[in-house]
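Dear colleague,

Following up on Tuesday's group meeting, I ran the structure prediction for the two-component complex that the binding team flagged. I've pasted the input sequences exactly as they went in, so you can double-check that nothing got truncated or mislabelled along the way. The structure tokens for the whole assembly follow below. Feel free to forward this to whoever is handling the docking comparison.

Inputs:
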Amino acid sequence: MPRSWITTAEYTLFILTLIALSAFIGLPPGDHIDLQESHTGDTAEKSPPDRSWEHYLVLPTQSERIANYRMDVRLDTQTNIISGWLILEWKNTTGRLQRDFPFHLYHNAWKNNRSTYAKESGWHLRRSAMTDDEYGYTNVKSVKLLDDVNEIDITPSFVYIQPDDGNKDDQTVFQVTTPRAIPPGAAARFKIDFETKQPLPISRTGVIRDYHFVAQWFPKIGVWWSGQWNCHQFHSNTEFFADYGVYDVTITLPARYVVGATGGFPEWERDNGDGTKTLNFHQADVHDFAWLASPHLVRTVRTFRHVEPDPGEPLDYHHPLKEVTVILLTQPHHDNTIERYFDATFKSLQYYGEWYGEYPYETVTVVDPANGSRSGGMEYPTLFTGGTTMFAPKEQPSPESVTVHEFGHQFWYGLIGNNEFEEAWLDEGFNSYSQARVMERAWKPFKIVQYFFGGDGAGTSVGIPYVFRDIDQQRYSTGNLQVRELGTYDVMARKGWEYYKTYSLNSYTKPAMSLMMLENYLGEETMYRIMRTYHHRYRYKHPTTQDFIRTVHEVTGKDMNWFFENTWFSSGLFDYSIDALENRRIPPPMGIFSHNDRSTDASISLSGRYESIVIVRRIGEAVAPVDVKIVFENGETVREEWDGQYRWKKYTYVRESPVKYAIVDPERKLVLDVNYNNNSRVAREGRFRSLAARKIASKWMFWVQNSLEFGSFWH
Amino acid sequence: MILHAFTSGFSQVGRSKRLIIFAWILNVALSFVVVVPLLNTLDGYIGDTVNEEELLQQISANWFATFQADHRAGDIAANIDLTIFGHAVFYHHTELFLGGAIVKRIGHFFSDLVFRFRVSTEHIDLLLMLTLLYDLLWIFLAGGFISLFARNQAGSISEFLSEGARYVGPFLRLSLLAVLIFFLLFIIVVDPITRLISSWTEREASELTPFVYYMIRNIWVALMLAFLSMSTDYAKIRIVVDDRSSALVAYGAGMWFALRHLSHTGGLYILLTLIGFILISLYAIAESQIPQSGYTTILLMFIIQQIYVVMRLCLKTGFFATQTNLYNAISRQEHASLARSG
């Protein structure tokens, strides 16, 4: 046989095999539907929303300033001990006499492995072996009650208390008793000498190398709330709660250290001439004071100036906002992240300010945390920490996502001072919702990114990033699964330390998704009004869940209890499906159509038409009204509203044309639906072969083929 | 010498198209064992929903996560992850390869069997079984390929198969030896180094430090694996060309040969590896340029994928052919110089 024939035969064999294999993909499908075809475009020009209500909202200019602290401390960078004193002026706004005063000592959570924090973490401090020098504590040396002339030593009344769990080894709350009661309207002044030993970084505070992140570091009075003291022990999941006040803090430390703190720039700074310097920070109307110091921080300062909206921008929320000085402290190797931090902070200042109310402080300090400091992604008044890696590609929202989130806490935690111990969703959930909105508004969709060829190191993970350019990051992309997996474990509205596995779900994911769902049900404009009203009304206050619900009812004028009962106060899941879609051609009439020899021809006209049945089912326990969209072959679209009360609902149509497809909740208002895959049903012709399935399967096939090849390398 | 071995080797590969297509068909057939069930699963999962249309436009991370969650343990679909998209497959498999994932699973399975008398099924799944089967097939095919290349013949399928059968015994022993060496390399050297990097750099200020360490580790592991693979290749060549039967001796001889002529063997290996990178790059470019949202483009991409697999098989056999030619050339040169000196 001639060689050229063989060659031709070989090529032919290959091509024929390839063609045969291509049958795997299948023949061109002919009955794909156009999801856009039946969308009724709302081309009518929308009239501008009525915003007259905004004029009645007034932001308070300052807080009640109940707990005011003056402190003078020194950081010893050799021993990692902060020592000094504080004077607390506490105003009695409780309306009754007060003698017993509880204080938080958060740092004692990291004193040993018997604290409640350690116990709830599994009898450890979330670190491998620690030396004694790596634990932390706050030691109260003395407590004095000051009046105009006297100092009364009340240290003998000092006692540790454990209001939550009775764990006698836990020293995160102490109480002192004054010899005389503090009457309503009067102020008590306490002078406390203390020293705080910084631990190895454990929970957003501590020291690593020469990076000191100093948070929850001083004795801090509890909050008189709902008729009693609210001063919880520090738990492994929970965060904080404190009254607003004025902080005036003087810090002495080695002169070469760069310092960032609540309050931004120091009021004054002094070189002590002995290799140390002293700085004074001042900030009013905040409920905490945090600071950090390291000789390696790089400080960049810029000013946020509010940009006028472009003409024709959708849904104008524009409100003029004041200038804010943004102080960025980055790690020396993170030069490439500076622009991204500023961009994210500026966008956050803009959107949070426009939506909820102006950011009231002069400065905000953004901290790029040191690797291994475990201080990333945390919020304090006028200061927050981001976190990123030098390898993050621009398609990955790092540091954008964490920056927006932690900045957002200036509003939801900072300005709205809810009780984070008991109702964490009011800050984490509200902020996650707001963060998602800012991310969507301010940037094009980010992409999924995965790191390869690296591992753990420098307190983080490193590797070479791979960007999945065809796959967008979606809001709450795994939220529905989280709800599906853990949603039935707990009712959302519970205290932070009482959840079983669900702190993250019920503090962040579910409340954020609930708020998005509420927005979908009420509309963006109404939601804007609710959130803005709530924020204005409760700025510098300690609102509760019920305060928010009341605001919703008031703003909407509707009874929205069904919503909260099925989301915040329920562990039920939402899952709606199109259970069946059937089209039957109505046969010609057969049989007897008469009564007493008088013919009845009423149903004859149905001949040749289609009876279409769509059954919508509520699989989950949670109930919400849903829309059902039914599209017929001829393009006709019917929308039904189902209250979702009973388990299923049957819709029957008799038309010239059969139903093409049906979707329950077509706009995906029901964000908490745990399975969108069953929300639609398409009447496919014959034995439909999914092209999307072939698209994915062909990629899987290529993956497997490569896997086989890689797997056979070693021999 | 390298270029001559390279050109003559690929010329031999060019004459073995039927055999390569045969190898490709085997590759396809084995992959179908896990692809067809997944396709059926996807058909049922997507087919009568509007996700069909949405997924054709864009893969949704939410949908994908839901699909994964709905198909957990015991399901073929549980194996798929996002690395099937784009060209992440190369990153993923290279990472698994540099971490010795497959070798370690096989090694752990056998060490549990031998030392603990326990059948540890957690190390074994259908995908690994297929990989092992594919390995066995290639142990067989390698004999055929090297034998034909060594004799510089196109050869018929029957000759190819009979030569494959002839060397399957020593090649199997050689492969077992290779897997043992790879396993020990990962367990004794690579994994402890990885743990050391993690603990050494735990308190480093900059993530650049661990990154550099990991990259050095990766390059070092890649070089080690390349050398060991090269040694196995030359051991096979020596078994065929020198008609050796001891896998152990052949392995030592192969390693010695690779080491003694490192500039040639290593140069050729690097050249072939570069071609591999070019192939991957071409695929990546094509993949990123073709929007796979319709029938035609999905089919086109599928054909490109298969062409890539065939090219890769050509490269794989190219390794055998060019290395056999290099071995023969060096051996001839050595004999000639021995003869001259003798």
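Chain A touches chain B through 98 residues (CB under 8 Å).

Cheers,
M.
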